Amino acid sequence: MTHSDPVPGAVAPSAESLARLRHHARHLGLFPRRVARTTGGGHSSRRRGRGMEFEEVRVYQPGDDVRSIDWRVTARRSEPHTKVFREERERPVHLVVDLRQPMFFGSQRLKSTVACELAATLAWTGARAGDRIGGLVFGTATAHHIRAGRGHLGVLHLLRALSETARQLVAPQADRHHLEQMIEEVRRIAHPGAALFLISDFYDLADQPGVERQLFELSRHCDITLMAVQDPLETALPPPGRYTVRTAANQLRVIDSRNPDARREFEQRAHLRNAGLQALANRLNLSLIRISTAEDPQVLLRRHYGSTRGGRR
Q: Whole-prediction pTM value?
């Protein structure tokens, strides 16, 4: 095989390898269950409940549903008492994964591979907890919408979309999506109350002034976590010298990192990009997690979402 014939399997995770990440979900818990106290009043919840669990009996208050009155306690205490229940509410998990051309880069591992592994592990974690799993996978020219559903079948649909889209990066082509369009599309399909993980390198954030507005509108209804994937070579050039690198188009190029002024300018631009993303997260009160391609994604997830209760929430 010649140098002009890249091997797709070597640069993209297979659906089978992503499926094997399932066992890591046992060690994770994404967030505590959302609970709501209710006495069965006249207003029905817009959200489907996982179930009703008895919490306590208290003195009846005006507006409580008479159907929840505990007649035995009422008779014993000669005062109306009502049962209070705790409703366990489902929380859909949406994985939004950026697999556009700039993600096909890495000095340690490809950013696209790390993004796929992050998304797969988070999906298995949500499925293990009984949540509905869905999402969007954006490629250079494609966008896969995986409808939120329960069980392993929905996760497997997501894994196939991740693997297929990552493989398409082997053949370079111009990106048809930009970050603002991606988030606008997420707003269209995201369920209110969903936990949403946006996995990207955010390379075009500074060029998309409308991103902040789109994220603000999305954050009004969803709990958003930004997961920024970055390679060490994107923040600092290697030690002074001449380096031969292979581009996404499978072409060889030489990088000269001996110029100190060029090194400082490169690092300053990287700092400004990172600071801009952090400032955006701070303004919108969004969670921001950074991961390097030199880091094991599973170690990072355990650090942020590790659970001593085996992933139960």
A: 0.78
